[in-house]
Amino acid sequence: MRRTHALILLAALFALTATTACTKNDANRPVEKSSEQTAAPAQKLTGEQLFKSKCAQCHKIKDQGGVVGPDLTAIASRKDAASLQDFIKDPKKQNPSTAMPSFADLPADDIKAIADYLGSLK
């Protein structure tokens, strides 16, 4: 009977040691990343893409887009990119009667990209 208890105790001790050894190896092993984690970061949208998604509902360029706001086909002949950035951020500051909403909540890089795109339209 003592021998049986000793064997059971020895087997339990061996199992505990093996489990601990396996756990330590897992802790040091790098975690595999899921496909979601390894996906490339989203590409930055260009000024033209941002214009199409944020502005073209109201403004048009070369007969494409909305008709609520002014046609921006040759806006660069009237305004520079810096002025356009300021207007996009706070249109009511430059024109209190405008119906255009503020886009100040857009990231600064996006506003700059839109203004640079519009600034290229001569």
Walkthrough of the structure:
The chain has 122 residues and is mainly alpha-helical. It has a domain at 47-119: Cytochrome c-like domain (Cytochrome Bc1 Complex, Chain D, domain 2). It has six helices and two strands; from the N terminus they run αααββααα. The protein has helices at 2-28, 35-38, 47-54, 81-89, 91-94, 108-119; strands spanning 60-61, 64-65. The chain has a two-stranded antiparallel ribbon. A hairpin with a 2-residue loop joins strand 1 (60-61) and strand 2. Helix 4 (81-89) packs across helix 6 (108-119). Mean pLDDT is 79; it is low at 21-26 and 33-40.
SSE arrangement:
Layout: H1 2-28, H2 35-38, H3 47-54, E1 60-61, E2 64-65, H4 81-89, H5 91-94, H6 108-119
Antiparallel strand pairs: 1-2
Question: Descriptors for this entry?
Answer:
122 residues, mainly alpha, Cytochrome Bc1 Complex, Chain D, domain 2, two-stranded antiparallel ribbon, 6 helices, 52% helix
